[in-house]
Every structure is written in structure tokens, then in C-alpha cells.
């Protein structure tokens, strides 16, 4: 027996909105049409789904279970469609996602093979589902993933640095510590993943002015002397504007200013992604 998705969607809508009138309004159908559909669903299943009185209709215990299972079926069907479409899309180019932005910035500069990347950063909790749903071929993270279906490979380290106005005393130092940067003001890109927690924890007295786009950050920095963060992955001269010449790049020497980066991928996809990953590792800037 096959029950149409349309009938299941109407049952779920009735459960969600509580009345035929509200459910019909949300579904853009008339109330009599929805009533007939609910009767049809009962007939096809051969069970009673609704308690009917003169002025009210409600779900029976069986109806409650049917609505719950119907919602699960519809969600699984949507996941099925997305997974197949995502899998098909993988055959054309690699999809790369990350939990921090810098590896993707570096990758755009050095990659010899076409790839696509999501503009949104993932959280650590989203990595496994993202890979299993074929949304990404590779996910770059700051932690290894331990799973029977997923492998992790060390890519390299990202080392945090600061661009300091050339007239600042800090610019004369070969390196600085987080403590040296207390009470300073920074322009910071908002989407930096774990780095946001690291800098706020280690420089609690600093003033962080977050920007939603890298373009806006560079524009503002060109007319101010605020400190700007860079790393070994984002100091490529072709990426930022000439305004950087007015500042001195100084490494941060604290241990917390370096994080490990890993490439995560589905085991079955290893032959496809490994050449890309090996090239990425070979070109990873060490300092």
C-alpha cells in the first residue's frame, strides 16, 4: 500500500495547526477539500484517525501516531532527495566546507582544481551530518573526527598574527603575547569560528569591533590604526589591500595562538579527495 505524500502532508498540517480551518488556510485548500482528504486517508489505512463531533474534530491515539510517523516519513523523503542531488553534484567538482574561514581563503589562492565552498561556517556538531548527507566532500575542522565512516588527516597549523600600526611601540617587537595586547582595539571579521572564543578569552580587556564582511573590514582599516588579525593562511599579498603596508606584521607567541587543522572526508570517497588534500598539505604555509 502506498499513501501519497499529499495526504501525509495534510495530516501533519492538521496535527500542527489543530483545526481543519487553520490547516486548510496554511495548505491553500478549502476546508471541504481537506475534510475529504482526511476521510480518504482513513479509508486507505482502514483505521479511525479522528474523533468527530458536531463542532470539533480531533485525532485519536492512532491518529496521533499516524501524524508522528507521517512527519518522519516526509522528513526522510526530503533527506533522500537532498542526499541524491548532493551526491550527483559531487561528480562535477569538490565541495569543501570549514569550521574556520582562513583555510578556505588560502585554498582559493592556491587550488589547482575547481571546488565549491559554502559561505557559512559549520560547527563541530554539524560535520558528520554534513558529510553523510553529501553536502561536502571535505570539511576542514580544528579537531579530528573519530568515526567508522569518516577519516581525518592533519593539514597543518594556523598561526595567529597581528597587523599593528607602524608607529605603535608594539610594532617594534619581534613577537607579542596576548597579555601585551590588553586594552587594545581590534577590527575583527565576525565569522572566525573558534578564534572568536580564543581571542575573547585571552584578551578579555580588549575592544573587539566585529565586521560582517572582509571587504568592510579592509575598508575601515584603511582609515584607522586599529589592530587587525592575520594568520599564516591570510597574509598572502594578493588577498588584502595595500593598506596593510602601513602596519607591521607581528606573530603572537602564545601556545593558544596556534590551532591544528584537519581535513575530514567519507572513507569511500578517499580516492577522489586525497589528491586534492595532498596538494593542499604540500602548499600549506608553515609560518
Observed structural traits:
287 residues, alpha/beta, Arc Repressor Mutant, subunit A, D-Maltodextrin-Binding Protein, domain 2, 2 domains, nine-stranded mixed sheet, two-stranded antiparallel ribbon, 22% strand, WH_DNA-bd_sf, DNA-binding, WH-like_DNA-bd_sf, DNA binding, transcription
Briefly, what CATH class of the largest domain?
A: Alpha Beta
What gap, in angstroms, lies between the N and C termini? Answer: 63 Å
Could you say how many structural domains there are in total?
Answer: 2
- Rg value: 27 Å
- In round numbers, the mean pLDDT is 88
Low-pLDDT residue spans: none
Q: Give the second-level CATH assignment, the architecture of the largest domain.
A: 3-Layer(aba) Sandwich
The gross shape turns out to be: elongated
Spell out the helices and strands N to C. Answer: HHHEEHEHEHEEEHEHEEEH
Tally of helical segments:
9
Q: Count the beta strands.
A: 11
SS-derived structural category: alpha/beta
Largest beta sheet, briefly?
A: 9 strands, mixed
Strand residue percentage = 15-25%
Q: Can you give the helix content as a percent range?
A: 25-40%
GO molecular function: DNA binding; DNA-binding transcription factor activity
Organism: Lactobacillus jensenii
Protein name: LysR family transcriptional regulator
InterPro entries: LysR_HTH_N (IPR000847), LysR_subst-bd (IPR005119), WH-like_DNA-bd_sf (IPR036388), WH_DNA-bd_sf (IPR036390)
Amino acid at each position: 500500500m502506498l499513501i501519497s505524500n499529499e495526504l501525509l502532508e495534510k495530516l501533519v498540517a492538521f496535527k500542527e495547526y489543530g483545526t481543519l480551518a487553520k490547516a486548510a488556510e496554511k495548505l491553500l485548500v478549502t476546508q471541504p477539500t481537506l475534510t475529504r482528504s482526511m476521510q480518504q486517508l482513513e479509508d486507505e489505512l482502514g483505521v479511525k484517525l479522528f474523533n468527530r463531533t458536531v463542532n470539533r474534530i480531533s485525532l485519536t491515539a492512532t491518529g496521533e501516531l499516524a501524524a508522528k510517523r507521517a512527519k518522519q516519513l516526509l522528513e526522510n523523503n526530503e533527506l533522500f532527495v537532498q542526499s541524491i542531488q548532493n551526491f550527483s553534484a559531487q561528480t562535477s567538482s569538490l565541495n569543501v566546507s570549514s569550521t574556520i574561514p582562513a583555510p578556505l581563503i588560502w585554498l582559493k589562492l592556491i587550488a589547482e582544481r575547481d571546488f565549491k565552498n559554502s559561505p557559512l561556517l559549520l560547527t563541530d556538531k554539524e560535520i558528520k551530518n554534513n558529510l553523510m548527507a553529501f553536502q561536502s566532500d571535505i570539511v576542514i575542522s580544528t579537531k579530528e573526527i573519530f568515526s567508522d565512516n569518516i577519516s581525518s588527516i592533519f593539514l597543518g597549523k594556523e598561526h595567529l598574527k597581528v597587523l599593528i600600526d607602524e608607529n605603535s611601540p608594539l610594532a617594534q617587537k619581534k613577537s607579542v603575547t596576548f597579555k601585551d595586547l590588553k586594552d587594545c582595539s581590534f577590527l575583527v571579521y565576525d565569522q572566525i569560528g573558534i578564534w572568536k572564543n580564543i581571542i575573547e578569552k585571552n584578551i578579555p580587556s580588549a575592544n573587539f569591533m566585529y565586521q560582517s564582511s572582509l571587504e568592510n573590514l579592509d575598508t575601515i582599516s584603511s582609515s584607522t590604526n586599529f589592530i587587525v588579525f592575520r594568520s599564516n593562511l591570510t597574509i598572502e599579498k594578493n588577498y588584502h589591500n595595500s593598506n596593510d603596508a602601513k602596519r607591521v606584521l607581528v606573530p603572537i607567541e602564545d601556545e593558544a595562538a596556534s590551532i591544528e587543522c584537519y581535513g575530514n572526508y567519507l572513507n569511500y570517497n578517499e580516492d577522489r579527495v586525497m589528491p586534492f588534500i595532498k596538494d593542499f598539505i604540500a602548499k600549506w604555509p608553515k609560518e
